[in-house]
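Example: tRNA pseudouridine synthase D.
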Amino acid sequence: MNLTEENIIFKPLYSLKHTPINAYFSKNSDDFVVREKALYEFSGKGEHLILHINKKDLSTNEALRILSEISGVKIRDFGYAGLKDKQGLTFQYISMPKKFEHTLANFSHPKLKILETFTHENKLRIGHLKGNSFFIRLKKVLPSDALKLEQAIINLDKQGFANYFGYQRFGKFGDNYKEGLEILRGKKMKNVKMKEFLISAFQSELFNRYLSKRVELSHFSKEFSEKELMQIYHISKEEAKSLKRQDHFFKLLKGEVLGHYPFGKCFLCEDLESEIKRFKIRDISAMGLLIGAEAYEAKEGLALNLENEIFKDAWEFKTKMQGSRRFMWGYLEDVKWRYDEQKAHFCIEFFLQKGSYATVILEEILHKNLFE
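Written out as structure tokens, the predicted fold is:
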């Protein structure tokens, strides 16, 4: 995979097979709502004040700046579990030193509300959340498209989804990763946070390309014969048989890295048959590579060959990144939908584990790029 191809924006493959569905989506506070679910109960004692905030069309950083100006707390002394979208109505938890609590007594802002406060021992850190619940309203939906939407959601709920990184990682033109690559090649950048973000965009781009390759393999396993699979992937008859035999859409590979779903230790897939059974009951998932020195490594076989194909231009920079693994296959939880034919509105609700993107789910359902 040539990373320097000019002006070619990579588009990940969909896992579902259906034609694009017509619906209008606008990311605004009426039609897109995100509610963060905390990782744990707050203790009720300690030096930190936890704010449950509700923000409207503000990024998390903009919300922090508003709170900082009112309270006098330095931006670095706030804590949060995850960055939330700017567009839409979002609910999340923010931590700050409790000694500044009195400064918020008369807090009022048109786009930011403090709903509840708690006391806790720890500052909130990135990742200190279980996940997010989403509400999405689609408009201008005809009855025929409502039926298609319902079927796509049922299929996705049953099968799971390819856990791609969303457009937020890649910038307006989808090319943040190129900047990340230039930094890895030695380009200087003073802003440390921006530097880290651009390098993570590079890691995310490669993760998406590898995951898309695995989605392609899963489609091909269904569509092609054993003999054709042997030729395409240079694998043995036994390996091709194994791909054909797996009845889950997403095919596992011997020698790849797996992890307990949704969060747990990584390990190698040695006993493929028993791991396939665990995968079917959503106990484990396949783990894609976020390239770096500390990432758990695949050891053999087709998984390693495919990784080498995607990451070949990036291995030389491995020591410049920390690296890790991220689950490639995830599942929707608490899925609901309803259709109002009179208004032509179709509403979808679901919960996603942390690190998954609602926009990725929506693009998979609609089969089109949301913001083109």
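The chain has nine helices and 14 strands.
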